[in-house]
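Handout, section B. The chain below has 243 residues.
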Amino acid sequence: MKRALIVALCMTTFIPAARAADCLDKACIDVYTQDGKIVIEGRKGSGPVQKKAVAPAPAKKPAPKVRPTPKPLPTGSARPKVTITRKPVIRKVVTPSAKPQSLSDKLIEALPTAGIAYSPSFEPLIKVPVYFWSDIPTFFAKRIEIIGEFVDVKLTPTFFWHYGDGVVYVTDKVGAPYPNGQIRHSYEKPGHYTIELITQWAGDFTVQGVTAHINGDIQTVSVLPITVVAAPTRFTPPITYNR
């Protein structure tokens, strides 16, 4: 796992992520990149992960005892006194654990991928501008809740257009078809080329009013083939005039 950045944010103070003890009373948020995705981790406390308490089962009532039928006494005899003793019912009292509890969570956010296109879409000619564009948004913003904290992530893309003939064009525009597109390129030779668009994301995240920059290699790649042809030539015979 390649982490371009590990930022531990503890309420309004930045702390090293390795110091887990600092997360005992405050929420620590880590934001980093992994495989072209944004990963948000949160932790609070140093004990085991908190689980829901289970209520104790109700005590069972003892089965009623059947009194034996006394035998008849002879006439004139005194009836003996009978004493019945019942065992006391013991109920268990469950007290909450005194061990510290902790909360932890991990969320992964994928970034948008780009679909690319060009015009003219069928066999553009050499030495004629070809217009390129993508459908990726120019701004990515999302609010994420983790262990009771809200993390605001904001990113913007930079586009690297590789036209396949060795020319690379860098821009923050998404482009458009003819005639309004700002991204255009002319090929000098006919042939089959592979267009490669690399989208590199950069931005910040904010927790409890504290903002930190997300550094790292957050990239998505899109490819599309293109075939460029030469302009057809026509032979026009010379015009002869009869005199």
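Note. The radius of gyration is 39 Å. Compare this with the example in section A.
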